[in-house]
Amino acid sequence: MSDPIADLLTRIRNAGNAQLPTVEIPHSKMKESIAHVLKREGYIEAVAIEGVVATKKIKLKLKYEGRKSVIDGLKRVSTPGLRRYVASDEIPRVRNGMGTAILSTPAGILTGNEARRQNVGGELLCYVW
User: Fold this and answer.
1) What would the pLDDT profile of 23-32 be if each residue is shown by its tens digit?
2) Beta strands in the chain (DSSP E)
């Protein structure tokens, strides 16, 4: 797999479209950090790490409003073939502030608003709305 973050986003998107209650994703520290940001921002209900070292999985409990997923869309921005870096004053607002930009910064995985507040830039990983 050449882009594990795109795989994470695709699994979440597919599970939401299929109205599945949970989705399992192979574990990595980066994916775990992104999952915790999604939980903190209210896009998913719960994050659980299961298994032992070699077979760890991240189990996400998705959030729904009626029969519709809370997550309307996910978009990968920086890809392995074309990295996209932004300074703290260049961080885009997603859907006029109704969405969230997720960045990988020296201070860790942060949302666009947190990165602006801490005045740090970094790699623009994805948009969630």
Assistant:
1) 999 999 999 9
2) 22-26, 44-50, 57-62, 64-65, 68-69, 74-76, 85-86, 100-105, 108-111, 122-128
